[in-house]
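The instructor's notes for this session suggest beginning with a concrete chain rather than abstract definitions. Hand out the sequence below and ask the class to guess, before any prediction is shown, which regions might be ordered.
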Amino acid sequence: MLWMNKTMGITDLERRVVEMLLSGNHSTLETLRAQFAVSEVSQREFTGVGFFTHFAIPPDAPRVAGKRSFQLGDVHADIPGLRLGADFILFITEGAIDFLEGFTHGDDQWPETVDTFRLTYVHTVGAVVRGTSRERDWEALWRVLGP
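After discussion, reveal the predicted structure:
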């Protein structure tokens, strides 16, 4: 069951995850960074094993060309109390940042507060996680973003 948190400011974890997801030298990422700079948290929902943070993007903010819809999801967090950590997916809908999903693995519950965490990039082969690293898998990212 979802429940909402009335605190609408972005958390440090959310901010740092989105910054990592949007890092890189690509026009799509540049556009999304411009959106994120003027975004506001409009809603936050907790599921027990994760959360959805929805963003409001002003109508005059730039949009990704072609109104593309896709996801960026190569950031992992090691968080005390979560055996397998947490992963994140940023959803872009019709060229604009829509929401960030964070989720645990197995039966771990999302912690009440997250003050300490370590972020890394996830490296995969197909759907299998190869490992994590401070360096991004640029080839995998270009497959999502295109030229």
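Then share the key points. The beta strands are 3-4, 40-46, 50-56, 70-78, 86-93, 96-104, 118-125, 128-133. Helices lie at 12-21, 27-37, 138-145.
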